C-alpha cells in the first residue's frame, strides 16, 4: 500500500521517469531542501537544467514529482575497472501521490492547515455537532463558507473515527479552496497565501501552510469517481518557498485577534472580513506581502526591519499622500514657471517643471500623517494611537530611512536608539490599522485590535 505522505529526514529509494532509463537514486526531504541523488552504474547521463519537472517512482509505486528544479552538474566515481555517474537535483516544490503531477495539470481543489492557529480556528458549536453525531450522518461538516465568483473558501475539520465506538474525534482545522477556474502547480499558492496572510494579520504573527493537498477534480467529481471506484486519490505538496524565522515557534494566542470564531456573531464577522480581504487582494497583494516580512522580523530592532516597515507604508493603497492644491492654481503656477524658464533661456528645465510642481501639490509628510492618524483614531478610538504619532512617523521617513538605506546604521546613544525603535513601531502600527480599517469587524473587534502585536508594541512603547 502506498504511503499517504513523505516524512522529512528519511531516504526514499526511487527511479526517475524522465530519461526512459529508470536511473535509480535516493530522495530526501528536510526543513531546508528537497533533493534527489541519482546514480547510474552503467552509462553517463545528464538531466538538463531546463527540465520543467522531474517525476520519480518510489518503491511503493507512488510518484513524487519535483517542480521548479535546480539540476546540478554531472559527477562520477572511478576505479581501475569501473565507473559510476551521478547527479544531484534540488527543487522548491514536490508533489506526492498515486501518479505523476504534470506542470499543466489542473488544480480544482486544495486543502491546507495552519498548525499555529489551531486553537484560534476551532469553532466549538460545529466541533460539538461533529463529535456528537454519527460519522455516517449527512450534516454539513464545514464551519463556514465564503463563496466568490472565482473560488469558494471553506473552513472544515480533519477528523478520525474510532473503529470500536464509531465516534468522531476532531483533530485539526482545515481550510478548503475550490476553484471555478483551475489553477496550476505554479499559481495555486497565491490563493493559499491570501488566506494565510489574512489569518496572520488577525493574529499578528507569521505562519505557513502545512499538510497541503491538491486534487484535479472538484468535490462533486470526486464523489462520482469514488462511487465508480476509479478515484486514485489526492496529492500532498511540500513547498520550500517559505522562509522560517525565530518567531515561527509556539501557537497563536487568540486573545490578540481582532476577529475570530469565538461565537456566532464573531464567526460571521470573521467570514465577512475574509471575503473583503480576498476581494481586494489584487490591489493589496504587495502591501500584504510586506506585512508578512515585518511580522517575520518582530523579535529584532534592525535596519532591515525599518526598511521593511517603510516599504510597507509605501505600498499601503490607502496611505498615499493626496492632492491639496486646486488644479487651476497648479496650472497658473506651471505656466508662470514655464514662461520664466523660456525668458531665461532654460529650455532644459521646461520638461521637468510640471513634474516637480506636481509633487508640491501633494500633502506634506505632517499633513498626510495627521490626516491618517485622525482617520484611524475616529475608527478605532483615540486610545489606539499616541498624540505624537505623526512625529514618530516623520522621524522614520525623514531621519532614519535614509540612514539605514545607505549603509550600516548604529544609534549614537540610548535616546536615538529609543527613537529608532519607536519609529519602527509607529510605521508598523499605522500600516496594520490602515490594512484593517475597512474590515467589517464587530464593536468588540474595534477594541481588541489594540492587542494585536503590531499595534500593542507601539502603544506600550509610547507610554514611556
Structure characterization notes:
This is ApeA N-terminal domain-containing protein. It comes from Sphingomonas ursincola. The protein is of the alpha+beta class and 464 residues long. Helices cover 39% and strands 22% of the residues. The chain has four domains: 11-91; 107-279, no CATH class; 298-321 and 364-461, no CATH class; 327-360, no CATH class. A six-stranded antiparallel β-barrel has the order 1-2-3-7-5-4. Helix 6 (303-315) packs parallel to helix 12 and helix 11 crosses helix 12. The protein is globular.
Key terms for this structure?
464 residues, 4 domains, ApeA N-terminal domain-containing protein, six-stranded antiparallel β-barrel, single chain, alpha+beta, 14 helices
Q: Percent helix among the residues?
A: 25-40%
Q: Find the count of extended strands (DSSP E, 2+ residues).
A: 13
User: Main sheet: which strands, in order across?
Assistant: 1-2-3-7-5-4
Overall mean pLDDT stands at 89
Q: Please, how many helices?
A: 14
Strand content: 15-25%
How are helices and strands ordered from N to C? EEEEEEEEHEEEHEHEHHHHHHHHHHH
Radius of gyration: 28 Å
- When the domains are counted, the total is 4
Structural class: alpha+beta
Poorly predicted segments:
none
Spatial shape: globular
Termini separation comes to 63 Å
Largest sheet: 6 strands, antiparallel, barrel
Amino acid at each position: 500500500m502506498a504511503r499517504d505522505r513523505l516524512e522529512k529526514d528519511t531516504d526514499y529509494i526511487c527511479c526517475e521517469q524522465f530519461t526512459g532509463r529508470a536511473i535509480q537514486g535516493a530522495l530526501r526531504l528536510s526543513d531546508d531542501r528537497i533533493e534527489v541523488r541519482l546514480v547510474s552504474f552503467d552509462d553517463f547521463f545528464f538531466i538538463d537544467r531546463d527540465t520543467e519537472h522531474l517525476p520519480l517512482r518510489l518503491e511503493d509505486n507512488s510518484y513524487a514529482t519535483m517542480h521548479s528544479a535546480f539540476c546540478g552538474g554531472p559527477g562520477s566515481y572511478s576505479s581501475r575497472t569501473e565507473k559510476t555517474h551521478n547527479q544531484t537535483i534540488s527543487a522548491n516544490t514536490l508533489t506526492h501521490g498515486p501518479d505523476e503531477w504534470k506542470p499543466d495539470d489542473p488544480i480544482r481543489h486544495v486543502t491546507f492547515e495552519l498548525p499555529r492557529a489551531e486553537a484560534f480556528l476551532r469553532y466549538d458549536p460545529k466541533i460539538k455537532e461533529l463529535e456528537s453525531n454519527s460519522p455516517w450522518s449527512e450534516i454539513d461538516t464545514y464551519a463556514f463558507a465564503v463563496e466568490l465568483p472565482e473560488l469558494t473558501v471553506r473552513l472544515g475539520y480533519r477528523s478520525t473515527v474510532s473503529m470500536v465506538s464509531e465516534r468522531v474525534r476532531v483533530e485539526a482545522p482545515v481550510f478548503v479552496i475550490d476553484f471555478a477556474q483551475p489553477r496550476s502547480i505554479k499559481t495555486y499558492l497565491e490563493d493559499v497565501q491570501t488566506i494565510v496572510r489574512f489569518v496572520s494579520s488577525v493574529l499578528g504573527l507569521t505562519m505557513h501552510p502545512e499538510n497541503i493537498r491538491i486534487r484535479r477534480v472538484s468535490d462533486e467529481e470526486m464523489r462520482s469517481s469514488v462511487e465508480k471506484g476509479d478515484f486514485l486519490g489526492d496529492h500532498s505538496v511540500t513547498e520550500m518557498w517559505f522562509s522560517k524565522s525565530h518567531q515561527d515557534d509556539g501557537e497563536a494566542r487568540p486573545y490578540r485577534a481582532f476577529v475570530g470564531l469565538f461565537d456566532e456573531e464573531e464567526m460571521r464577522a470573521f467570514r465577512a472580513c475574509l471575503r473583503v480581504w480576498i476581494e481586494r487582494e489584487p490591489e493589496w497583494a504587495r502591501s500584504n506581502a510586506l506585512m508578512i516580512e515585518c511580522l517575520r522580523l518582530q523579535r529584532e530592532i534592525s535596519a532591515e526591519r525599518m526598511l521593511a516597515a517603510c516599504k510597507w507604508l509605501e505600498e499601503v493603497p490607502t496611505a498615499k499622500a493626496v492632492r491639496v492644491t486646486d488644479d487651476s492654481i497648479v496650472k497658473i503656477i506651471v505656466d508662470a514657471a514655464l514662461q520664466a524658464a523660456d525668458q531665461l533661456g532654460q529650455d532644459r528645465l521646461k520638461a521637468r517643471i510640471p513634474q516637480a510642481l506636481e509633487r508640491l501639490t501633494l500633502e506634506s509628510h505632517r499633513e498626510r500623517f495627521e490626516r491618517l492618524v485622525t482617520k484611524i483614531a475616529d475608527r478605532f478610538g483615540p486610545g489606539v494611537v499616541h498624540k505624537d504619532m505623526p512625529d514618530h512617523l516623520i522621524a522614520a521617513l525623514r531621519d532614519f530611512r535614509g540612514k539605514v538605506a545607505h549603509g550600516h546604521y548604529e544609534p549614537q546613544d540610548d535616546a536615538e536608539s529609543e527613537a529608532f525603535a519607536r519609529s519602527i513601531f509607529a510605521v508598523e502600527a499605522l500600516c496594520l490599522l490602515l490594512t484593517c480599517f475597512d474590515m467589517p469587524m464587530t464593536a468588540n473587534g474595534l477594541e481588541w485590535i489594540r492587542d494585536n502585536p503590531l499595534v500593542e508594541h507601539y502603544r506600550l512603547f509610547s507610554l514611556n
